[in-house]
Amino acid sequence: MIQLNDFLYGNMEFPKVFEALLQTDALKRLAGIHQSGAIFLVNPSICHSRLEHAIGVAMLIKKMGGTELEQIAGLLHDVSHTAFSHVGDYVFEYVEEDYHEQIFAEVIYKSEIPDVLLKYGYTANQIIHGVFNILEQPMPSLCADRLDYTLRDGIHGEIITRQRAKQFLNAVVLSNGIIAVNNDAEVQWINETFKKLNDDVFKLPVHLYANGKMTELIKLFLKKGLLTKSDMFKTDTLLLNKIRTTYEGYEAIKSIKQLRGLAEFIRHGKVPVIKDRALKALLV
Fold first, then answer.
1. pLDDT value of residue 156
2. Buried b vs exposed e over 132-160: b needs ≥16 C-beta within 10 Å?
3. What percent of the chain has pLDDT over 70?
């Protein structure tokens, strides 16, 4: 067994398959992928990783009584994210921000994950083709993925407190196999929190600037042959280091950190298109 700890869900014990999966290169890489893309370059306090979120999702599924298989699916659901997370969507022009979903099977099959799963009685096909109603639901419904990043990103973005998030989790229940909320006031709170997260964190002009400028830079370096598509599947630090090996790249990263051209960038509408989203938590 392995003990996992998280500031939202506390301590939980998981079977050996989780320990083995967390030792794979594919999941270790997620520790070096920032959940919020390039935002950390202009706001260093927002620096949590995709791995932190992935572990949180698995723990939330376990908390809700989901099967071990669905917990594994939760742990693995973001394994195909590129460096800088959704910046990859903007680079490859996936307007639905689902590039990682389109390549999920390919990334899984090319990793050590199928062998690990087989060792513990599971298959990669069960993860890739399984239906996991706690893990994922279409917008605007609540699910473990959406709920964890709403609370986690909200805390790191300082729009909610950890204590308030934990209070909300006390109202979260499972209804007909789907995550729901048993308190009308808490339904209103999570819906408002989701909107605030989008408006005050994801769409904050300086944050849009960071992700937009990083998108421009990566596209330019790919076009020039200074980066390859495979570089997008390294960690953020390794990708940054490769960009910085050129004087042009070094100056460009420094420029982003110093917010050069922020007003012009926003004024000319060069920011990535982020779709308006809403959350509608189910009340039971």
1. 97
2. bbbbbbeeebbbbbbbbbbbbbbbbbeeb
3. 97
Beta strand pairing status for 178-181 and 10-14?
unpaired
DSSP 3-state of 112: coil
Q: Which two tokens stand for residue 79?
A: 């394994």
Q: Identify the CA nearest to 209 among candidates 161, 127, 269.
A: 269
Q: State the Cα–Cα distance between residues 258 and 170, nearest whole angstrom.
A: 42
pLDDT tens for each residue of 249-271: 999 999 999 999 998 888 876 66
CB 279 within 8 A of CB 142: yes
Between CA 215 and CA 218 the distance in angstroms is 5
Question: CB neighbours (10 Å) of residue 5?
Answer: 10
Could you give the residue ranges of the DSSP H alpha helices within 183-261?
Answer: 184-197, 205-224, 236-244, 247-257
Q: Supply the pTM of this predicted model.
A: 0.95
3-state class (DSSP) for residue 51:
helix
